[in-house]
Amino acid sequence: xxxxxxxxxxxxxxxxxxxxxxxxxxxxxxxxxxxxxxxxxxxxxxxxxxxxxxxxxxxxxxxxxxxxxxxxxxxxxxxxxxxxxxxxxxxxxxxxxxxxxxxxxxxxxxxxxxxxxxxxxxxxxxxxxxxxxxxxxxxxxxxxxxxxxxxxxxxxxxxxxxxxxxxxxxxxxxxxxxxxxxxxxxxxxxxxxxxxxxxxxxxxxxxxxxxxxxxxxxxxxxxxxxxxx
Length: 229
Known about the structure:
Layout: H1 2-14, H2 18-23, H3 29-45, H4 47-50, E1 63-74, E2 89-90, E3 95-105, E4 111-119, H5 124-128, H6 134-141, E5 144-146, E6 158-159, H7 167-187, H8 191-194, E7 196-197, H9 202-222
Parallel strand pairs: 1-5, 1-7, 5-6
Antiparallel strand pairs: 1-3, 2-3, 3-4
Helix pairs in contact: 1-3, 3-9
């Protein structure tokens, strides 16, 4: 129902503890949790309609998108031997986390790529080069992305800042990456991605991140489009 859908949006936007949310509704904690996750999974499923790789690109296209990793802090996961798992350590959050690789179109300002979740200890360049990942897709399409210095080492697939860039090219890359950060800002308007994610498991995190990404895609189309580069 629309009531359950709004409860799911409230869950993603505010991410309140279960006891506080139960007091705001006439539902039991279990019923509220089941219905909320059901609606979040329905939102996640819309990614197949809203997050699409562009077709019919001009033949002279070189740069198609910007790419960056988005980190979200989590509770320290259990490790069989140590008190902390270094593979989960996020240098951006200074604690354990998950990371999603996100790509934003330079032409339409839409989200066209998501890859995750990955343990935050994996750097952007490692995730980019994973089998079946964005590096392979860009190679197949014969186009490039624009990224920050963490993507150095893949010059055929990602353009980063370098000393040979003209002033115009440097300015374009700078605007493109700021353009990407604005989308990251939309994601972080949802407390479930801005604070510390409390639930366990990559599957549940994927549901929440991708549901929020779909909502942000709708916002780009209907409410607050990114500025033109």
